[in-house]
Amino acid sequence: MTTHSVPLHRIAITRSGDKGDIANIGVIAFSADLYLLLKERLTPARVKQYFKSMVRGDIVIHPMDNIGALQIVMSQALDGGATRTLRFDQTGKSMSVLIQSLEIPFGDNEMALVPPRPPFELAE
Amino acid sequence: MERAERDKERYKTPQKVRLGAGAGYWGGELEAAIKLAKEGAVDYLCFDQLAELTMSLLERQRLKNPEHGYIPDIVTHVEQLLPVMRETGVKVITNGGGTNCAAAMDKALAIAGRQGYGDLTVGAISGDNVTAKLDELTRQGWKFTNLDTGEDDLGAIRDSIVSAHAYIGADGIVEALRQDADLVIAGRVSDNALYVGPLMHEFGWSFEPPYVDRIGAAIALGHVVECAELVCGGMSNLWRISPEPWNIGYPIAEVSADGSAIVTKLPGTGGIVNEWTVKEHLVYEVHDPSRYVMPDGIADLTALRIEDLGKDRVRISGGRGLPRPDTFKVQIGYRDGFAAEAIYLIGCPNVIEKAAKAEEIYRGLLARSRIVPLDLRFDRIGVDAISGGVFDDPPESQVRECGFRIALRTRTREEAMIARAHFLRVTLYGPVGLGWGAPAAVRPVISLWPTLIPRDAVDISVAVRKASA
Questions:
Q1: To pair with B4 at 20 to 30 A between CA atoms, which of A94, A119, B32, B322?
Q2: Does the bond joining B349 to the residue before it have cis omega, within 30 degrees of 0?
Q3: Domain boundaries, chain B
Q4: Contact residues on chain B for A11, CB-CB shorter than 8 A
């Protein structure tokens, strides 16, 4: 089976923010099927590998089955938190944008799940 | 309707309560809030103006001048809101009292007096400042463990502490409303307490077991609307389809007595409210969504049902919660060195190589002055300023220009001043570049030490006064 790489922004929307030195990213899947797939493949290890230059602590991912979302919580993620960090992005708001380029592996038979555009744009 | 008549109406347990978000941060647009009050038939306007750092900044202002310490915008806000409050009966709840709610109340009452609004009743809440309690509780054996780092020796930073504030709940707001306050000025209440308070008051909820789920629902709802435009298509993945973002409307929550609610905005305003914008904000700054721990309760955000009703209306129901915790979260701010930063512009060819040379020169300058910064950072804006290391560098041929940023934090102001003076030399001693204005002044850094305090160690009190009294 051929494996494809689908960037996260094709299958989900994201929003991130901070509390102290903890950054979190909410990832909301475009459909129930995509949510199940993300739940399996968007693992803490994959996220940690992706953000290895930015996140020094643990990563935990909480499911939100009710809205088809994953809550990624990253410790020691902001170089000391918004008030002390030297980063341009003090509050980690752009981490939600960064993660949208993370590639998720998809099988051939799963590619049909990827919508041509986000559902809220299709509805227009 | 006459005020007395309106008040009589209010004493009945209402079917629905309409809450409007007046601000989601310090600097929100007052026009959007006033429009909500005038056209939105809202019973309450709630203003969240505090971020994690704000209390320390305000406390520093208060220590310099005992008349300061509240969000200064509150003065113009009150001036402009009072006529609308008088006209519509809308009540206003704000956490803009910062570290000096009493001074903010004096200001508000003086403004009301000048505007001839003698029957304005103002409530001010205090007790969130727990700075004076730290030593006593430590002596009694309480550990102020840092929730971020696990460190538990507060002594290590004791002499550098600027302020310590507990995130208190809705108790004070409920009490002020019970005493007929039209304007409630709070300090470090949790953001969502601004919304939980009026709902508890209007619907007669308490913290007893029968109301725990409804308070959980109210916390979730407060969370969804407390950042104002961020649930209406602001800072959003829906930017392509959000109409007229320059006229973005602030959200309205129409809440029923069972805690379910409809989130909407005014017709004719810009932005958008749909299932996606609500979900976007539901996940914002949440850790374990099944246990969203707040001073008024622990909300289970995984129990909520979100239904898009169309036309900028979304129903939120199914809220659940657990009883409020025995501790409050406390944010301790402490002095933690000084920071300086500068930006240069570097043009092609060889942008990446020149940036590397500039970094080498700056490191050399610091070493020559024997400055070992606590933190040091170099960014190439346009290449890696926000993606720091996540992507590989592009080939030189693809980089036309970049902003080259140096930022550092030092132990002393003197070190930061010397380091700042060296910024200029990076271009003067190295490759041709372009300074981007004068570097910002050296700034003191305040770090935060998040921790917990026992609930019963915090004394919340409420003062209520009338303008004419």
A1: B32
A2: yes
A3: 3-128+167-325, 332-450
A4: none
